Amino acid sequence: MKRCSTCNRTYTDPNLSFCIDDGTPLTTVETEDDTTVVRPRANETEDWNPVAYRPPTGYVPPGSEVKQRRRAWPWVVGIAGAFILGILAISIVAAIMVPRMMRRARQNERVSPNINRSANSNTAENSNTAETSNSNSNSTAHVDASAPTDHEQVLAQLKDLENEWTVANLNADKKKLDRILADDYVGQAGEDGGLQSKAEYIQTIERDTQVEKWEFSEVKLALAGDRATLSGIITYFVRDRSSISFDFTDKFVWRDGRWQATGAALKQRGNGETDL
After folding, report:
1. What is the pLDDT of residue 260?
2. Would you say residue 166 lies in a domain?
3. In sequence order, what DSSP letters do the residues of 82-149 get, joined into one string?
4. Global confidence as pTM
């Protein structure tokens, strides 16, 4: 005889291993007498249908689900910690790099962006609207850079500066002249004039609308450290008139990372046309 430990129901069928009511495994008990045997009543024998066999569900030890949930927490904490450390690392790098980038940008702002070069002969058609891209190619150098020593390089730089200077003179561009001329500039005031300072030069400059184009020739350079002297011939092509040529001698100094004019002298060639 077998008994269900849950409902205490007994069975005499030796083939049954589980309770037909709740599926609990049956345990074998010794039969003491026939009174303990449960038999179907006479009126139930025909209508009695045993419950279909259900295999026992897997046994889950109590508290195992809690352990699984607890095991997931270290991963969550680890991922969150790594994310926070990543943000801190990015913040530290930004705090170091941003000030350096700002200092570098401020240094670049102190450097002139003019780099364009022009040919030795300027062929501008109208000086009223003539704007050349000639610039002192050394203006991109750092203000603390030493003076260039290559003869050909300096010659090309000063030719560009001469063209830029000529455009500023014809257009009476006082802002451009203020940059080209050194603060200690002293130059000739006209062919037969005396000397004039930078302030007098800029104050008395007037726009010239007659020159259509100009060109330099026989240009020579004398270079000595941070000082340079450029000499040659400049020819102006004047509207409705023949060309006029002048011998010029301009002096320059390397200062603040660029060439600046410290003096100028001009003398007309021949006895043809009058001075401009």
Report:
1. 95
2. yes
3. HHHHHHHHHHHHHHHHHHHHHHHHHHHHTS--------SEE--S-TTT-------GGGGS-TTPPPP-
4. 0.48
